[in-house]
C-alpha cells in the first residue's frame, strides 16, 4: 500500500528542508541504498509457501487415513491431526527427536531416496500394549524393543504406509515400502546433515496417551515432482480430470442411445386410387431386382447393404457390405 502524507506532514517536511534540518541529497541516498537481508545457508529455503500449503493439504488427508487405520487396528479411540509443516535442516531434525524412539525408514518408488516416519515412544508402546491385549498404557521405563515387538511394529507401520500412498495419489502414484526400523537416531543417516527437509508433525492421541508422529521428507526426494505441488498445476490437473470424466460420460451416453434401423425391400409408385383399392392377395411390383442387396438404414441414413432370409423361423437380414463414410446416396 502506498503511504499518503497529510497536508500537515507535507508542510512539516517542507519546513524541515527549508531550515536545513533535513538534507534532500541524504534522502536520495537512503532511497537508492540497497536493502540487505540476512540469509542463513544452513536453513536454506527450498519449499515455497505454495509448496507448504500443498504438503499441509496432502498430509491432512494422510492424518485422516491414519486415524481410520489405527482405530481399526487398535480398537480404541485414536485421533491424529496435522500440527504444522515446516522446513529445516536434517541435522536439526535428528537433534530434536528423543534418543530412544521408533524410526520407520521407507522408500516410495518411483521417487528416489528414503523418508522417515518417526513415532514417539509413548505412542509406539501404547500401540504395542493394545495390540498385545492390554489397555494401551505406557510402561514407566521404556526399554529397547525385543525381536517379537520389532516384528509387530514393522507389520503395523508397513500397512500404515498404505495411507501415505493414498494421500499422495492426487499428486503421484507411488509404492511405499518399509525398508527398516531403527530405534537410535544416530544410526540413521538418510541425507547429509545440511540437507533441507519437510517436517510434518502430527499430534496423536490413543486413549489417554498423547504424543507426536513426525514425517521427515528430504527435499531431494520431492525435487522431481515439486512443480506438481503448486496450486496452479493441481488446478489444471483437476480441470483436465473433470474434462476427461465429462468426455467419458458423454461417450457412455452416446453408446446407450437408441437408433431406428430399417431394411428396404424396394420402392414403388402407385396412384391414390390404386392404393385405396388394395386388398389381401394383391401384389405390388418393386423397382429393385431380386438379386440386388437390400438397403439398410440407421437413423434414416444408408449404412449397410444386406440380403433377406430367416433365422429360427423369423425374418432377418444379413449384412453383406458396409457403405463407406462420405458416400452420397443418389436417387434413381
UniProtKB/TrEMBL annotation:
Cell membrane recorded as keyword: yes
Membrane topology: Peripheral membrane protein
Location(s) in or outside the cell: Bacterial flagellum basal body; Cell membrane
Coiled-coil stretches: none
Flagellar motor switch protein FliN-like C-terminal domain residues: 252-323
Family matches, as Pfam families: FliM (PF02154), FliMN_C (PF01052)
Keywords recorded for this protein, A-Z: Bacterial flagellum, Cell membrane, Cell projection, Chemotaxis, Cilium, Flagellar rotation, Flagellum, Membrane
Family of this protein: Belongs to the FliM family.
NCBIfam families registered for this protein in UniProt: fliM_switch
Designated name of the protein: Flagellar motor switch protein FliM
Organism annotation: Paenibacillus thermoaerophilus
